[in-house]
């Protein structure tokens, strides 16, 4: 039996992972610890096979007054947790990094295709705080301490937070939507948690780039959701010159830009059990 400690209480990923592992009660024992105050430092990590560090600030902020907080939580806390795990004999440390370390989305009409040779280039202190932790923790790996870095794209699923549920909320009312072609890497929560499970089972170290089998266009999220709900939608053509003007807006590019992992990056086992459209069906059922 694998004994796993999830560092970060009530996180979407951590809670979902614990629920996923409950399918195999004889194979995994899971504990979760709160990282908000310093009491976690008093808990012994000895005896755990794996520490899965999910604690962190998960969304972008432009508020400079929060910059130090991002580095304290996303970098310093993560590094300190990894150091404690290594000192106390944990065999494997899994760190939740992010695709955000590769910077902003490309303007509409262009694509950012990330390969193994693409250098990280964070666009803000959120991305930089994750990258600094990512790189520091990688250096701790040795023959007795396996380090597994997860760099997922957008993770979505029932109960998730962030921009994806906002997009589905828009889909409820969007009778007309811009017909703009783009491609994005995303991953459904069950696919991600299965990927992490395989990384644990195989004691795999290194950097992992899990994603769904299919790339997704923003318009397809809207169209699929409305189809599931039995609602019609009209896709409105957008002239190229209008897209070019709007591509000067970061918000427009965030909604309709392209950012994806090359497919060969994500060949790390059979973890894609849920197709994109099936994930939307589940989210629609959850939302009611």
Automatic annotation (TrEMBL):
Signal peptide: none annotated. SUPFAM superfamilies: NAD(P)-binding Rossmann-fold domains. It holds the Pfam family Epimerase. Residues 30-203 form the NAD-dependent epimerase/dehydratase domain. InterPro entries: Epimerase_deHydtase (IPR001509), Lipid_A_modif_metabolic_enz (IPR050177), NAD(P)-bd_dom_sf (IPR036291). Gene3D superfamilies: NAD(P)-binding Rossmann-like Domain. PANTHER family: BIFUNCTIONAL POLYMYXIN RESISTANCE PROTEIN ARNA (PTHR43245), BLL5923 PROTEIN (PTHR43245:SF58). This is NAD-dependent epimerase. It comes from Cloacibacillus porcorum. The lineage of its organism: Bacteria, Thermotogati, Synergistota, Synergistia, Synergistales.
């Amino acid at each position: 039996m694998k004994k796993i400690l999830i560092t970060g209480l009530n996180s979407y990923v951590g809670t979902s992972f614990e629920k996923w592992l409950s399918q195999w009660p004889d194979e995994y024992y899971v504990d979760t610890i709160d990282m908000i105050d310093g009491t976690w430092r008093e808990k012994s990590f000895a005896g755990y096979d794996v520490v899965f560090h999910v604690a962190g600030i998960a969304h972008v902020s432009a508020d400079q007054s929060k910059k130090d907080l991002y580095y304290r939580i996303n970098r310093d806390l993560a590094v300190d947790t990894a150091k404690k795990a290594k000192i106390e004999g944990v065999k494997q440390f899994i760190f939740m990094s992010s695709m955000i370390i590769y910077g902003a989305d490309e303007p509409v009409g262009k694509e950012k295709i990330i390969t193994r040779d693409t250098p990280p280039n964070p666009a803000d202190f959120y991305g930089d705080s994750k990258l600094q932790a990512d790189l520091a923790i990688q250096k701790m790996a040795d023959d007795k301490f396996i380090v597994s870095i997860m760099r997922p794209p957008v993770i979505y699923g029932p109960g998730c937070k962030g921009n994806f549920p906002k997009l589905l909320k828009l889909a409820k009312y969007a009778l007309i939507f811009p017909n703009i072609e783009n491609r994005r890497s995303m991953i459904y929560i069950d696919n991600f948690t299965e990927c992490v499970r395989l990384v644990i089972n195989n004691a795999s170290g290194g950097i992992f780039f899990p994603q769904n089998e299919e790339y997704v266009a923003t318009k397809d999220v809207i169209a699929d959701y409305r189809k599931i709900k039995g609602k019609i939608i009209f896709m409105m053509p957008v002239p190229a010159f209008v897209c070019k003007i709007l591509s000067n807006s970061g918000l427009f590019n965030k909604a309709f830009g392209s950012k994806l992992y090359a497919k060969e990056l994500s060949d790390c086992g059979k973890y894609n059990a849920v197709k994109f459209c099936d994930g939307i069906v589940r989210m629609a059922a959850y939302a009611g």
